[in-house]
Amino acid sequence: MTDTAPPSAPSPKQPPTSEEPGLPGDENRMQDKPDWHPRYPGSGRLVGKTAIITGGDSGIGRAVAVLFAREGANVALVYLSEHEDATRTKALCEEEGANAIAIAGDLGAKAFAQDVVGQTVSAFGSLDILVNNAGEQHPDEAVEDITEEQLRRTFQTNIFSMFFMTQAARPHLSRGAAIVNCTSVTMYKGSPELLDYSSTKGAITAFTRSLAANLVDDGIRVNAVAPGPIWTPLNPSGGKPPEEIPDFGENTPMGRPGQPNEVAPAFLFLACEDSSYMSGQVLHPNGGVVVGS
Known about the structure:
Layout: E1 50-54, H1 59-70, E2 74-79, H2 83-95, E3 100-104, H3 110-124, E4 129-132, H4 148-169, E5 178-182, H5 186-189, H6 195-215, E6 221-225, H7 235-239, H8 264-271, E7 282-283
Helix pairs in contact: 1-2, 1-8, 3-4, 4-6
């Protein structure tokens, strides 16, 4: 018998990968800034509702947060470490007349997801909408180039976080609540340089459909949005190879990338009563790319 201790189990929370240190990126540093501005006056579709939006500091998350605020929601913004962007987004929500809080941390940790929900319910007294939008991507030309560190990290951020947030939120969601997940066009058409990212998006779509069936009897709707190439800080900060940035989005039928404010209305539709007869569905703001449902 040996007194050698067995190897310790790996930590369930993966540290940030060192391959693209600029991710997820700061919107305030971009010269060509994404367009997050809502395109129309609010109509009160979320008055009295409270929403958590992960990845809410910039890009699609910022556009969704400001639009939800314009429609009357209390907003909890969850972000990793982009404090300046988050402070700006919180102020933009407040300018719309909404109450807003910003919470920084890594959603790959289950304890942080629980803390997010706890802070939100403490601040606003309820929780009605969960938008699982946080994500990361790391381009690689060959499958052998994807390190174990990167693979674990991408799955942790993109899909584990959705489980953790949903588990934490579930006791506070009652009949009429909505969950909206962010998947991607890459789930449907694939991406030769984003093998791990695309795989997580496939998992998110399956999670969305399965969770919708799981919660339908409780009156909680679960849907998803699958954006195409959208101009956000993720792209120039390492999410796309630098040589592809000038042509980003040109391979869509519309011949251009989308803007965050062209995606946010899809999240609003799925979060409000306009979509009361929809669950387990995916909307596709992708520049005209025709994909299977």
